[in-house]
Amino acid sequence: MIAWSLTITRLFAALSIPFLIGNYYIMFFYSIIAPLTDMLDGFVARKLGSQSMAGALLDVVADKTFCYSFVFSSYFFLGFDSCLFLSILLIWILRDLILFSLYLFSKKPFKALIFGKIYAAFQFFLVFVVSLSQIFGNYSLINSFLYFSNFIFLSLGIVAIFNYFNYFYKK
Fold it and tell me: Which pTM was predicted?
């Protein structure tokens, strides 16, 4: 129950993000709390023996909802008119659609793999950098980081797709 509470808290935080645009300190706080609750919910579930398929899926939904909400809100409401931001969103969406399709057509249970965890960690790091740039008004920091992020997300996304494809369809 504790693990579920952490995940649900992250999900509600994600849904509140579009309403908090402009309140940079709360957004910064969220950018720190979200990855911490992401790590804690799985740790607590394992320690208490309360792991479940539903909990694992809810965790992924909460992670995706948080990151997408944060980045979409930053892009649309804060006026990041960078094609880099949009390309990152498109990479995320394409990767997630491919992985979701692999999961749907597979007979294997959902399982978080290492490249998926690395990808999620980097998504949370991007959210953190975006929130810092909003506080300090340093948008050159975010633009520099976005160039680097495009390469990382594209590379990790491709590796994750092959990794999951191998997991789901390995005999």
Answer: 0.79
